[in-house]
Amino acid sequence: xxxxxxxxxxxxxxAYCAFASQEYIQEPAAVYLRLVQQELEVRxxxxxxxxxxxxxxxGGTPTVLPVxxxxxxxxxxxxxxxxVPGCEFTLEANPENILExxxxxxxxxxxxxxxxxxxxxxxxxxLGTLERGHDSRQAIKAARMIRQAGFALLSLDFIWGIPxxxxxxxxxxxxxxxxxAPDHLSCYGLGLEPGTRLTxxxxxxxxxxPEERAQARMYMHGAEYLESxxxxxxxxxxxARMGYSCKxxxxxxxxxxxxxxxxxxxxxxDGTRWQNPPxxxxxxxxxxxxxxxxxxxxxxxxxxxxxxxxxxLRTSRGLNLHDYKHLTGQSFSRRYAGIxxxxxxxxxxxxxxxxxxxTRNGMLVSDSILEKFME
Length: 375
Hints:
The protein is α/β, with parallel strands linked by helices. 43% of the residues lie in helices and 22% in strands.
């Protein structure tokens, strides 16, 4: 089972962010801390203390919490769950929160062995557009400190397609990132989420997104560059050195059961899914009812089939056609023969050794392709 813990606090809200997060304030953070420990205990009893194969603390920004608060959450994890030997334990961090070597060493002593650092860009002008809380100098320093603290697993997060960004600039950022010697890179295309400050500025004409062709070139050439540097693309937005793919992400895409704790966190166990409310106040009300007053969704046959196809085709390995037939009793290649032929002729998919996968061109337009295969 995968375990995800959502920390819903940030120092400030970035201009593009639509995640369930809020500014860190001591009083609601104290309420959250008490409740998430309670939830971990309750859920552990409900699912009978299952073994945990990976742990991921995300947000928000987990490192905006005091180290002592993070330690209490980690203690609750070890008290209530049984991580397997060598369990991957990821902590998301922002550069502005990586200030003390002592803090990093405490994280390591907790059993955290992988840091996912939210750089997003190494161009100070673009960081300003995104309204990030750090500059490029802080980002580089943080990455180096994480390595110096002895963390063997370091992932860097970046965004491409930012207003004002060019292909040359993007490739330059990637070259600098590679020089920092991470094991893993997550590179996401900027999405314009409703209600964010960045979306409002673009719609008002204050900023302009790179044209579609330029964004496509950023994706294609960026992926080619990373692979030339030894980073294998194992998912639409993720690249890793051989043997360093994120186990937690791989588990999600393989359909493994996962438990989420904290506001807005989603869980799927034994074919049943539920989601916690995003607001701290509603999460507190749920805690007052011992985390039992939720709507539980039994995943339908159609949902299971769609998720198998959607999640599998996000990965470079692709959809296992035998797994599809085992679940549905049908041949995927026969059912969608016409669509597959058209996509193949346009160099958007490949089929070999019992798998159907998207090419890199196909990954670029994955949303429109996946729609064609939904039940």
